[in-house]
Each structure stands twice: as structure tokens, then as C-alpha cells.
Design brief:
single chain; alpha+beta
């Protein structure tokens, strides 16, 4: 798929002029297509757009790519003093901090935040600095960073390009600041709208990459880490323990948990309720973990928790907490209140093994169980 990010007049400036054939089929005199003549400013901006298409597909993160986009625009014109890009959600604060901001005017304000109201515009809009208009004027929206110190403001006009997204609750905006009130009217909006389109593409690709990464790392049902990801987390924890000095090394333990006789729940209530119970169980266990702990779904009804800075005693205490919680707190889902039966084992790195398979084997050989319920008690 080929994206045309350029306005028609810019594309004509970049492409060779075609020949116009006469009625006899022979090539006639070269006839240039009619169109406006580009000034040096517009040609420089078009050149940056072409360069962007060649360089931005490189391996940058979304935020880095947006910042690089802004950095590449500045050299195209000595009149552009600042480029600002920000994103907000419906529940964001009243003012939005920038995701990327570059330019010589950056040092002119201590508080770089723009009003959330700016993000509600559906089309590009400009504002001209008019400090005599008072603080209640709409123009202050894009010039808010200078409200306290207007004497520091070296820019005279701002052009805001709203950024669109399929996410209804997410909004974006790209703002260009220039040192002349007539700069944007004389240069035109087309190139800046194209820059905004490039920014949209970067933003959407970054969101898609984040979503795909999240789907690859998290179990879709429980929200816990996948088996492959929890293995990676364990290996990272072991590596950190191995590289730490003897006096800095901290213990590392795992907690292995399996739901007993879970097939009975599936048989009695159906798979939909059973899935919701698994999700509720994962949420309840997550609430009892520390921020440094990580939980993963090991198999269908088996879970593995990696516990950094946790020795055998602390791991045993956590296991007892799990057992007590689910013994005294049935899982409530839809119209059902179901007490889960589970078995838990713990193992500590070094004392009970070093490989993850060894630790899991040790944990499964030393399981402690809650009261196993009969089918009548479910």
C-alpha cells in the first residue's frame, strides 16, 4: 500500500514534468502542468517529508520516532521556533504535558503544558499572539506556557494539527510555533498536515506494536503472564541474583499453585463460568502479591509466581496467606459463590534447586492443600 502524504502541488514539484502528446501521436513540446510556484520555504518542507519517509521506518520506539520527526522539521525553516506533540485521554488532567517537544523557544517557559480543550478541535486551527486580548481569550489555549511570562515569548503564531485515532477516548495534537504572524498563511497548511499524518502513522503503529507485545506476554483469560514470559522473568531474576555481590545478593523463591478438582466446576457450571472463576482467582492472587512479584499461568489450572527478595520463610508465609484467603473467601462470580480447593508448594533458588524445572519439581513434591471439597459442597 502506498501512502500519498503530499499535497498535489508538492507532488508535482517532486516528480518530473510529463510530456504532452499531440494528436498525431508524436511527442510535442514539453508542457509543464499548471500549478503554483513553490517558494524556498515550501520546497524545504517538502524535502523533509520525503526524507521522513525514508528514515522513520527505522527501529525507533513510538516516542523516539515522534521526537525525531519534530527534530527533522526544525532545520527546514528558520521561522519555526517550536514543535510540540501531546496526547490525552478523556480522564486526563486539565492540562497536558508534551510527549515530544523541540525547538529554540523551549527555554522560554518553565511550565510546558497545554489546555486539554485544545484537543477537541476537529480541524487544523491557528492562533496569533495577542497579549492585549486578556487571559479569558481563546488564543491563550496554545500560548498557555507563556501566560505567566509573555515577555519571554518569541513566537507570534501557532498552528495546531489534531491527530486522529480509532480509540475514541484518546486524542492527539501537533502544534507548530513560528516567529511571524503571517508565516502559516503564507506557507500554507498542506505540509504541516502531512507532518501530522506522519505523526498519526507513528502513533498508530506504536499502539499496535504495544498491543501485539502485550498479547504475546499476557494470558488473555487471566491477565497473568504467559508461560514463556514467566520463564523469562524467572531467568532475569536468576541473572540478577548471580551477578550481585555476595553481600548484596537477595534470595529468590517461587510459588507453585494448582486448583484441585477444577473439572468438577467446569462440569457443574459450564466453561463460561469456569473461565470467569479462573480470571477472578488470578485477580485475587494478584492483590496479595507485592509489586516486585510476578505471576503467570503455567497450565490450564496451574499458576507460577516468581518472588524476588523472598526466602523460604517468607514464601511459606505467602503460601499460607493464599490458602487462608481462599478457604475463607469464596470466589463470587455472576450468581455463584464458589469456594476453591487449591494446593500450593514453594521452593527457594539454591536451597531447593537452581533450574526452574528443579524448583517446580520440588514444589510439587511438597504441596500443602486447602480443604478439598466434595462435589456436594461446590
Amino acid at each position: 500500500m502506498k501512502l500519498n502524504l503530499f499535497p498535489s502541488w508538492a507532488q508535482r514539484a517532486a516528480d518530473p514534468e510529463p510530456l504532452v502528446e499531440g494528436t498525431t501521436g508524436k511527442s510535442a513540446t514539453t508542457m509543464p502542468l499548471a500549478g503554483p510556484t513553490l517558494n524556498d520555504e515550501q520546497l524545504a518542507l517538502v524535502g523533509v517529508l520525503h526524507q521522513l519517509l525514508q528514515t522513520l521506518p527505522q527501529a525507533y520506539s513510538g516516542r523516539e520516532s515522534v521526537k525525531r520527526l519534530c527534530q527533522m522539521i526544525l532545520p527546514a525553516s528558520p521561522h519555526i521556533r517550536l514543535v510540540w506533540v501531546g496526547f490525552c485521554q478523556d480522564d486526563s488532567d486539565a492540562t497536558i504535558r508534551p510527549a515530544a517537544i523541540v525547538g529554540k523557544a523551549l527555554a522560554e517557559s518553565d511550565q510546558w503544558q497545554l489546555s486539554k480543550d485544545c484537543f477537541d478541535y476537529a480541524a487544523p486551527f491557528t492562533q496569533v499572539a495577542d497579549w492585549d486580548a486578556g487571559h479569558d481569550s481563546d488564543f491563550n489555549a496554545l500560548f498557555a506556557p507563556w501566560q505567566s511570562h509573555p515577555e519571554r515569548c518569541s513566537v507570534k503564531a501557532a498552528l495546531a494539527i489534531p491527530l486522529r485515532s480509532e480509540k475514541a477516548r484518546m486524542h492527539g495534537m501537533m502544534v507548530f510555533y513560528a516567529d511571524s504572524q503571517d508565516y502559516f498563511s503564507e506557507t500554507g497548511f498542506a505540509s504541516f498536515q502531512a507532518f501530522g499524518h506522519v505523526c498519526e502513522v507513528i502513533w498508530k503503529q506504536s499502539n499496535l506494536s504495544h498491543l501485539l507485545t502485550r498479547q504475546a506476554q499476557l494470558d488473555s483469560l487471566t491477565g497473568l503472564l504467559t508461560r514463556r514470559r514467566i520463564v523469562h522473568v524467572y531467568e532475569e531474576a536468576v541473572a540478577a541474583t548471580a551477578t550481585a555481590a555476595a553481600d548484596e545478593a537477595s534470595p529468590l523463591s517461587i510459588l507453585y499453585c494448582q486448583l484441585d478438582d477444577f473439572h468438577k466446576i467446569n462440569d457443574l457450571y459450564g466453561w463460561a463460568v469456569a473461565d470467569n472463576i479462573l480470571a477472578a482467582f488470578a485477580k485475587d492472587t494478584g492483590a496479595q502479591l507485592r509489586k516486585s512479584d510476578s505471576g503467570g499461568r503455567w497450565n490450564a489450572t496451574e499458576f507460577l509466581y516468581v518472588l524476588p527478595a523472598t526466602d523460604t520463610v517468607d514464601a511459606d508465609n505467602l503460601a499460607e496467606t493464599f490458602l487462608a484467603h481462599f478457604k475463607n473467601h469464596p470466589v463470587n462470580i455472576e450468581n455463584w459463590s464458589i469456594r476453591l480447593a487449591l494446593s500450593i508448594g514453594v521452593a527457594t533458588y539454591g536451597a531447593d534447586g537452581r533450574g526452574l524445572d528443579e524448583l517446580i519439581h520440588y514444589a510439587t513434591q511438597h504441596l500443602r492443600s486447602s480443604n478439598t471439597l466434595s462435589e456436594d459442597e461446590l
